[in-house]
């Protein structure tokens, strides 16, 4: 049985280029607290929600134990079960704890890494329709090649949780306008 948690809250985090990881100095990471139903069927409901809002290529697993980023796609992670501490922004970034029901939207270029998780962690990930993720590691070689790719990644057509008029689009469009 799925259960809806309390009121949704949104946190945002902006990470500057640190010379090793490009991050995304214009688009903030958004963390939606209590955005998903939890309990039995939570992963399937999350896949359906993301797909309905144009975030496709869904997978179910965890979060890699090493810093990595995608220069060719934005990524959404929905926590279907358990909890995870995710380091965002590279070595000098910020650790955020995510629990079942939370969603994090990670702009292209922002590094992320699992820094500890519960044994029952289940993450559902997806990407905006038409975007396909690559795998990049911190360092000068990947950094230099990634910068123009990150700048060219278009904004998604919809918020993965709220659809075409969600807070992601409002915040990211405002960030694009500067």
Number of strands: 11
For the record, the count of structural domains works out to 1
CATH architecture: Sandwich
Share of residues in helices: 10-25%
Q: How would you summarize this macromolecular structure in one to three sentences?
A:
This protein is α+β, with helices and mostly antiparallel strands and 178 residues long. The chain has three helices and eleven strands; from the N terminus they run ββββαβββββββαα.
General description of the model:
This protein is an alpha+beta fold. The chain has a single domain, classed as Sandwich (Jelly Rolls), CATH 2.60.120.10. Helices cover 20% and strands 37% of the residues. It contains 3 helices and 11 strands; from the N terminus they run ββββαβββββββαα. The chain has helices at 42-52, 140-152, 167-177, and strands at 2-4, 9-15, 24-33, 37-39, 55-61, 75-81, 83-88, 94-99, 103-106, 112-117, 122-128. The strands form 3 sheets. The chain has a 6-stranded antiparallel β-sheet, with helices on one face. A hairpin with a 5-residue loop joins β7 (83-88) and β8 (94-99). The longest helix is centred in the C-terminal third of the chain and has 13 residues, at 140-152. The chain is globular and about 45 Å long. It starts with a strand and ends with a helix.
């Amino acid at each position: 049985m799925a259960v809806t948690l309390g009121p949704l809250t949104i946190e945002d985090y902006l990470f500057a280029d640190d010379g090793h990881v490009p991050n995304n100095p214009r688009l903030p990471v958004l963390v939606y607290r209590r955005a998903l139903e939890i309990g039995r069927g939570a992963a399937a409901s999350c896949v359906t929600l993301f797909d309905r809002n144009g975030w496709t290529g869904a997978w179910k697993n965890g979060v890699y134990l090493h810093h990595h980023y995608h220069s060719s796609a934005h990524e959404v992670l929905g926590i279907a079960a358990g909890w995870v501490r995710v380091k965002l922004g590279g070595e000098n970034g910020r650790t955020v704890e995510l629990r079942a029901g939370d969603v994090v939207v990670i702009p292209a270029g922002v590094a992320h890494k699992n820094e500890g998780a519960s044994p029952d962690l289940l993450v559902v990930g997806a990407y905006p329709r038409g975007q396909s993720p690559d795998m990049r590691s911190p360092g000068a070689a990947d950094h230099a090649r990634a910068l123009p790719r990150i700048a060219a990644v278009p904004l998604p057509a919809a918020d993965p949780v709220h659809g075409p008029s969600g807070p992601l689009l409002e915040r990211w469009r405002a960030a694009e306008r500067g």
